[in-house]
Design goal:
Elements lengths: L1 H10 L18 H11 L15 H21 L4 H13 L3 H14 L4 H13 L3 H14 L4 H13 L3 H12 L5 H13 L1 H13 L3 H15 L6 H13 L3 H12 L8 H14 L2 H22 L4 H14 L2 H12 L8 H22 L9 H14 L3 H14 L4 H13 L3 H12 L7 H14 L4 H15 L6 H18 L2 H10 L2 E10 L5 E11 L1 H5 L2 H24 L1 H9 L1
Helix pairs in contact: 3-4, 4-5, 6-7, 7-8, 8-9, 9-10, 11-12, 11-13, 12-13, 13-14, 14-15, 15-16, 16-17, 17-18, 18-19, 19-20, 20-21, 22-23, 22-24, 23-24, 24-25, 24-26, 25-26, 26-27
Length: 587
Amino acid sequence: MAASTAAGKQRIPKVAKVKNKAPAEVQITAEQLLREAKERELELLPPPPQQKITDEEELNDYKLRKRKTFEDNIRKNRTVISNWIKYAQWEESLKEIQRARSIYERALDVDYRNITLWLKYAEMEMKNRQVNHARNIWDRAITTLPRVNQFWYKYTYMEEMLGNVAGARQVFERWMEWQPEEQAWHSYINFELRYKENWIKYARFEEKHGYFAHARKVYERAVEFFGDEHMDERLYVAFAKFEENQKEFERVRVIYKYALDRISKQEAQELFKNYTIFEKKFGDRRGIEDIIVSKRRFQYEEEVKANPHNYDAWFDYLRLVESDAEAETVREVYERAIANVPPIQEKRHWKRYIYLWVNYALYEELEAKGTSIGKCPKNKLFKGYIELELQLREFDRCRKLYEKFLEFGPENCTSWIKFAELETILGDIERARAIYELAISQPRLDMPEVWISFAQFELSSGKEGSLAKCRQIYEEANKTMRNCEEKEERLMLLESWRSFEDEFGTTSDKERVDKLMPEKVKKRRKVQADDGSDAGWEEYYDYIFPEDAANQPNLKLLAMAKLWKKQQQDKEAAEQDPDKDIDESES
């Protein structure tokens, strides 16, 4: 034992002692050492000799050495994913797919959040045509990391390249459940637009196997999905033929008419052809006439779209719809037509436009048939006509039109104001004043706007006594509107009067108007349901005007009760704090 210990001590080398510890005269830096090594090419190693493998034993030996090298690198640092990928790709190059899968699985156990690892793994399976394995990997990837859009794009692209459109659609639908960014939705839309016929194939598959209700739902889903923006006549033709096979002829007509109303004429040639064939086979004379009318409607639609100011085309279109369509459709076309106002101020252009209004009014009068002329758009007609004459500066004709208009509707507050404003612009102040006075004398006109406009007119005239006249108009308006049921309109008049007095009146004038302002109070009232039963109570705000309160004993009693309650509250407060009263009396 002692001999072995002594032998061990003899094997330990002795450390050389440095006798001179002074720094060298010439200092050499690390940079100089590297530069000299580069210059002398000391670090260049000769390339390894090429190894030629001649038999299976040598190949197995080579594989063993390489695998040991890869495993050693992984053992040194397991978190370096590039070592795992190089290892798996080397196994893949040897067609050792099962070993490569094992390496990728071991790497995923180390870092399953690494996106590159999943991509390389799936790409290996796809390159080697292992489709089901690739699907499995993509499915695991989107389940584990659903917010990585690259996985979803790769997965749907693979299914689309394989021709599995239904599978790609299913992946897209799973993706949309995660509410991804806008680009993902666009990709889904473009995918569906590329495969419109797949909806038809899907529906025909269901029809072939006798699932007619399922086939109808597929067609309905397709129509809803593509909407009005991406309509395709092939889809509607297939849908109509399916319903024709089911002997649902009314459904067929609805489908054809729905599509023809929304698809442009150039893109609906096949649709028209099939609709005509259908009506000849199963329809009557009325059905064939509907086809002809629909075709003519398409022609007129194209004409008015190309030139909205082609009033002759609008007249032809209106004659067609008046002879065949419902009243609401006719009104819709009239409204579209009159919305196209002539862009230039020439009488020959406006003449045709005004006739649109005249025909519209005549149609409504004939439609009403003497029951109620309320629907007749004469007010629109008069306004359009007056607008024409104003642009042509035919002011005398404008006056006559306003007079006719006000004979037709004397309760129209805006028309009286516009008529008076026209006379003011033309400088005929006396005529404008006469129009205002005539307006406020109308028994059916109890709105404050005319009174306010009349007062502002007198104020803007700038003549002597204009303030007195303006104040007199407000006083007369207040007296007239005391019986007005709409208290908000009466308040509107008083607020306008107060604004006038704030600017031009004296202190006493302001106080006088302030005394006329109402008090806003909260009240309760019963509410009845539609069936007449009690539905509880609701709160609402009401306005109590001092002039009305003076004439109502109940309101006086209510005011006295409020005053008594306030006095009682002040009395109780004084009893609770007597020191405050002493301090106030001393002060």
